[in-house]
Structure formats: C-alpha cells, structure tokens
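Bench notes, bay 3.
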Amino acid sequence: MRVLFLAPHPFYQDRGTPIAVDLLLRTLSDRGHEIDLVTYHEGKTIEYENVNIYRILNIPFVRDIRPGLSWKKLICDTFMFFKVPLLVLRKHYQIIHAVEESVFIALFLKFFFKTPYIYDMDSSLSQQIVEKYPKLAFLNPLLKFFEKIAIRNSEVVVPVCDSLARFVEKHNPKRLVTLRDVSLLKDVRNGNQSSLRRELGIGDSLIVMYVGNLEEYQGIDLLIEGFALALREMNRADLVIIGGTVSDIQKYKNKSSALGIGDKAHFLGPKPVESLSNYLSQADILVSPRIKGGNTPMKLYSYLHSGKAVLATDLPTHTQILDSYVALLSAPVPTEFSKGMLRLMQDDALRLRLGEAGRKLVEEKYSYESFKKELNSLYNWLEVKFIRKDAQ
C-alpha cells in the first residue's frame, strides 16, 4: 500500500507520541508498505526501509516544541497543511494514517481528493485543549463537534486506551480498533545496581523514581510535595526525576529547595530510551503522579515490565490498566500520595509482590508482539478493502 503518514510533532524525540510513531513505522516498514512521513522540522532523523521522511520548512523562530497545544504547534501544523496536498496530487495514496490533530488535514484531503484516512487518536483534542487552557472552555462544544466529524469520516479510529475507545464509540465510528502502547524495555534484567547510587552519593537509600516530561498535567508538584511529607516520617529515601527541559528542571529544583529537600531530589534530565531499562532496574519505587488526562501514560507499561513497585494516582488515566493487584493507587493529593510512598518504602514484601504482578501483566497483555499482531491485523483489513477496490 501507498501510505501517507502524518505526524504533527518533532520526530524523532524520546517522548510519548514520537515513540509510538516509531513503533508504528517499524511495523509498517517490515510489511513492505511504501510510506511517506510528513512531520515537523525538529527531531532526529531515523532511517527505515520503505519510508521517506518529508519535513516542513525549517522555521528559525520555532524551536523546542513541547507537547500539547501551543502557538508553535499551530504554526507547524499550518506548514504541514500546505505541504501535504502537493504530495497527495503526486503520489495518489491509498490511505492516510493521521496522528492526533493532523486528522483535520486528513479530513480536508478526503473531502477534496477522496483519500480515506485512519484517525490515530492519542488523546481527545477537545479535552486536552480545555484542560490546558480553561479559558477556552466556551469553545468546547465547537471542538467536540469537529472531533465528531473527524471520527465519523475516518475509515477506522485507533484510540490508544479504553477511555478514549468509550469516547469514540459515542460518535458511531465506522470501525474502532484499540491499539495500546507497550513496554519499551527490551531487556528487563537488572542493570548495574550500584551505579546510580554511587553517582548520586546516596548509599543504600531507597530510590523513588519518575520518568517523563515535566509538564503540569504530569503532577510533578504533587510528587515533590508528597515526597517532602514522606521524608518527615522516613528519611532513608531519595527522589530521582528523569526527563524535562532545562527551564522545567530549574523550576522544580527551586521548589524542592523551598520545601527543604533540595539534597534529596535529583534531576538527571532527559535520557535515551535505550538506557531506560538500566535506570528503572535501579529504582525501588516507580511513580506516576499524573493529575489530568484520560489516556494511559506510555511509561506505565515500562514501569510494570521492569518488575518494580508502581505508585500511581487513582484516576482513570491509570485505572484503565492498573488495579490494586499490580500497583498501589493513591488519591491525587500530597497527603495521600505521601502515604502511598511511605507504605511502599516500609513494606519490602509489598514492593516485591506488586513488581512481580506488574511484570506478569505486561508480558501477558502488553508486549510488542501483541502490538504488532493488532496493527498487522488492521492493515490486513485495509489492504483487502482498498487494494481490491483499486484493482476493480
């Protein structure tokens, strides 16, 4: 098949959606499809067989594009909008695979060129916009209307989790296939158990670890405040935070110092995905303090796969795959989150039991093999539908 793949974000970067796109491209490339990827000007170039990468114009004043709606993303999406029709006229694609807001570009192309599209849905755009910019809540009915139109005109909607699937079902899609994220760990054996402690000078202290961006919705304020409360009861613990931009790291370093835990909170900055297994293996407790959003954080699958105890907020973003058998769930307030940390810090057996149950869950349900099987099944169906149609 000739596939136009729209990825409206920097590509490649070591964060959620770009990582998911990388997994998709690797699988589709192995199938032998002819794929043209259109993406932003930022990001590391990766070579794939059968994949051509087209970037928008290098815009000098648009740099360091972050997740979520922003004026930078709007500018880049506009450049994508004008770049894509020229490719469609030249290549005559059989399907468009549209990620996130690029679905509206695909909707436009379907209207004018009759090219069918897949809506790869990582989040509800209407929900995401209103959560990040509450003052735009008055636009919510209009945003939901356009989202509904995009869903109903797609050949298939591919949500990333069950909560999004339930949202999509309300709009009567032609077809719905839930394609969940997977663990990014290739090797779950223990890494060098002393290297991080030695590097940070923390001896035999328990390590509470967070991995991911430091956007507000991730609940980093909740994490730091909860950890500060936990240290009042048990001082033999250190917080290690991996990820974030320079400005975000400085912001939370300042907050940690203000709470009197500056020497117990360690910010390592971004690390490559390839090193994730080694870092997770050195943690005692892995935390996901997210306070907003409906989609499941991709990091959760790697957390569970590592075999370490997981503490997460008791919200649908987590509970659609987590329960009390595989993780400790806590209300998203500092006092309760600190109690969850303390319970795990003080109970070695509980940490071991949760870690083993989490690893087993991922190996049974959320492996890369399961992901490939589901994606291949979807594209087998698309090939039958559109290649036969073209042949006729």
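Next record in the batch:
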Amino acid sequence: MKILVTGGTGYIGSHTIVALLEAGYDVISVDNLCNSEESVVDNIREITGKEHTFIHADLRDYHWLHNALQEAGPVGAVIHFAALKSVNGSVEKPLLYYDNNIGGMVNALKLMQSLRIPRLVFSSSCTVYGQPDTLPVTEDSPFLPAQSPYGYTKQVCETIIRDTVAATPGISAISLRYFNPVGAHTSALIGELPKGVPANLVPFITQTAIGIRPQLNVYGNDYSTPDGTCIRDFIHVSDLAEAHVAAVRRLVQEQVRSEVFNIGTGKGTSVLEAIHAFEKVSGMPLNYRFAPRRPGDIEKVWADVSLAADKLNWKARLSLEDAMRDAWKWEQKLRDQR
C-alpha cells in the first residue's frame, strides 16, 4: 500500500517514513522545506536502503498538488504532519499558524475526498487538553481553553476531521495526541533540525552543549511542581514513529471511523530532570539559567497511554536517557559535517 506523508522531511515525518519503509509500505512525501532540508530524503535512503518519492510542494497549493498526486497513482492512506509547531512562535504570529495549520488540514481532507484516499492519521498534540485539571490525561479528558494559538489549531483540526469523517462515509481517521517527542534515529542520520533558534528543549540542550548557544534558558522555576520547573511526558521519536505504523495497520484491519489515542510514555519528567538526564549520558555539565515563564507554556501534563496499548498494541520502549544519547550523537555528527 502507498502512504502519502505530508511534512515528510520534518523531524517526526522523517522518522515515520523510515518506520513505514521498514514495515514494507511505499511512501510519497510532500514538504515545502520551510523547516527542514531535502538532504533528509537521501539520509532516509541510507538508513533503509529503500527509495521513496519526494514532492517539493506546499500543501496549501491545492491544485498543483492534486495534479501531482493524481499522476502518482492510488494512495491508501495519508499521514498528516505538515504544520508549524512552535508554541511560542504561534503566540507571536497567530495568523501564520491559523493559515498554515488549519488551511493545510482542510486541503489534505479535500485531496482525500477528491482522490478517494480512505484513511487518515493526524499528527495531533497533548496541547489540545490545555492545562488539565486531572493527571494523567486520558482521551476522554475535556478540551480546556488552549494555552496558545498552536494548541488551538490542533483542537480545530481534530474537530474538522471528526466533522468530515461524519459527512464522508469513505474516510476513516485516527488522531494521535502525542506528548513531547525527543531524541533522534540511532544511526544519527536524521534528527531534529530546527532552522534558527530552537523552540524545543532538547535541540536547545544539545546546541548549548556543543557551543552554538551560550546558555540554556529554563523558563520558570516557580511552578507548582517538585522542582519548580514544567513537567512533560518525553517520548523517543522512534517510538512515536512506530505508533503511526500501528495506526495505519488499525485503519486497514478494523472497522474504524474516527478515533483518538494518547501517545506518550505515561511518565511525567521535569525540565530539570531532562537536563540532568542529558548531563548523565553526555558526561558534560550544561550551562543553564532560570528565566521568567514563557507565554503559552502549560505547567504539567503527561499521558494515560492504556488505550494505545490496548487498541494499537503499541507502547513506548525507549527511555529518556536513550533519547538524550541519540540526540547528542545526532548533534555531534551534524556539526562534524558542517
């Protein structure tokens, strides 16, 4: 079966393509390269020994992409990653996030309807829960007010998917609400490659350790948590990639209409604990300081992942230390090549 992956040269998309190719699927990927590089396609080939089709295009260019996909032949499923993902960036540029994330989602569904693509796996986020009242969050936890425009786009996209599936008998969908992806492929050939200043914690940690950034800012040490820093559920990106393969398999094998699953480890880890995990595996002290809280950040969140274990037959296997070790290998190899 052929899978269309939007945002395929991005961080999570590239790792998922590796998992798909290794599972025997054919892949077409689409990316506008706004936050990634086309060299990722070659690195995926080196990891897997397999080719996949790459299309350099913006998902919002509906008509051009429709014609390109029509020529590529029947597609069995879409995995939709293509979106801007910085919480802080969305606070600064909300209209850009609404246009890109929501507009891209609408076009992906229009393409599915027009080209008769029956299955969708959507890259959602734990930000849909806002700041939850009860932890860990389950898939039945309510949507509270989003803490950022980014989080709101994920809430809206899930609603758009649910409404479209209800109105379109030929389409089924699974939304994966994942928590905080970290790490890199163990080969160190693909990993998180932010353009400019990183918005996420781990690439900022590794760039600080290697000397690109003078220090790491820890935003807030006065939260109501054991050490005062935010708590997150950090999941290795390779585990996350396998969850997408499991979701495709479920859509093919089961009579699914519209489902959602939390994808995390089920364990909350503070920002300081993450820093110390990096220091342990790298053997390097990290230069960090505490800074004021950042707009849009949630205090604490982690997942109940029992539904994914039951229905997707999936659970995280790799530890935070594994993720930090792989991220550090990726950072070192990346800088050796530049």
